[in-house]
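Bench notes, afternoon.
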Amino acid sequence: MDKKVIIITGSTRGLGLAMARQFLSLGHNVVLNGRTEDSLQQASDKLSDFKEQFTYMTGSVADPHTHENLVKTAISHFSHLDIWINNAGIPQEYDYLLNVPDQTIIDITQTNITGVILGTKKALSHFTTQNSGSIWNLNGFGSDGDMKPRLTVYGTTKKAVDYFTRALYKEIKDLYTWLTIGTINPGMVNTDFLIKSLEGQDEKTIEQNMAFNNIFASDPYDVARKIVPQILSAGQGFHQLRYMTLPMVLTRLYKARKILKNMD
């Protein structure tokens, strides 16, 4: 087996941690990343069965030095780097723009947009030294143009990530024909992101959304089991990976109609 080395930003919980576990279970090496030592230690404890296959680096993706240190960590521990996944992101509480604190807006945009751009730049810079590599950016609500009131800031950042990834591919596709780059759309994933988006809503809306989420939100480990093999097998060029297939969507829509109808 060709053992890969993967950097996953924001991999202390949720889908990031689930992808890390899936890569490790397949025999690959992973560099975890999170903003605090405590969160990384907790993630390490959950992955203790694979302790020889991973390491971690603390740091915010909004800081350019974090990406530099991630590369250095990968090279020093595993001697090379093959795949970079920009997974780190900050959710938005369900609220009107005028109620969102300025610092929250700054934190969301710096992590969700600036962090992805900085990470992609560093990954690309390293991969050009070896003429091989794979870069993946996480899409989310808003990436496809969907709009929902009171999730304006978050949706804007995810639309920006989708644009950035597509535009960058057009910019470099003739320069680096060996590169694999793409977006990952996991659909609704049952993580604390989803719970946080419900904060600030009235009781009835929360009840309806929770019922909806219970149908449409997928377990992060189910998503990882499908997405990780696709990342590993993706060839050169641009790719769009999606967890939800049309039959899955239709089945869940049917269930949602029945439940929401019973709640009326």
